Amino acid sequence: MLSETEIIERLKVQDRSVISYLYDHYSTALYGVIVHIVQDTNLAEEVLQETFIKIWQNADVYDAQKGRLYTWMLNIARNLAIDATRGKNYKKSKKNQSFENNVNHLENKNVHHIPVEEIGVKDLVNQLDVTYKMIIEKVYFEGYTLADAAEALNIPLGTLKTRLRTALQLLRKKV
């Protein structure tokens, strides 16, 4: 077993065998932290790989006075995982399913459903002011999260929430 000092020295001189040693001894712990943040095993594996690349490339900036090696590696893993969740692809992958996907899912399960058009919800929504109509369509029919809908409509999240609440109150009055 290598000491922390030996690992650091070998990292700083780019000894390739030490990266294998680090992976064997720390990958499980780092992966656990990453997968907890990104909640996706495929993405977690990619982030873990990026973590070890970054550790390898930045070994010369590690400062033992600021903390232990494991803590430094853990911070790299955590930061990369958080960065991954901020990416556009991640947000799209976590977006709610579209209305059509839910209907198809129900049809495949042999659950009787009535299309939205037949129960008149779409007609009621179409009677709303355009401002409210767009929000209802994004959130309920297109499956956007509130944050994604706010971004797509280019309005603050708080404003979207207020307008959504108002739109739902207006719809309740129409029923």
Topology:
Elements: H1 4-12, H2 16-38, H3 41-57, H4 69-86, H5 88-94, H6 99-108, H7 116-119, H8 121-126, H9 130-141, H10 146-153, H11 157-174
Helix pairs in contact: 2-3, 2-4, 3-4, 9-10, 9-11, 10-11
Short synopsis of the structure:
The chain is built from 11 helices and no strands. With 175 residues, the protein is mainly α.
Can you walk through the features of this model?
It is built from eleven helices and no strands. By secondary structure, the chain is mostly helical. It folds into two domains: 4-92, Rna Polymerase Sigma Factor, Chain: A, CATH 1.10.1740.10; 95-174, Winged helix-like DNA-binding domain superfamily/Winged helix DNA-binding domain (Arc Repressor Mutant, subunit A). Helix 3 packs across helix 4 and helix 9 (130-141) packs across helix 10 (146-153). The longest helix is centred in the first third of the chain and has 23 residues, at 16-38. The chain is rod-shaped, with a radius of gyration of 25 Å. The model is unreliable at 97-118 (pLDDT under 50).
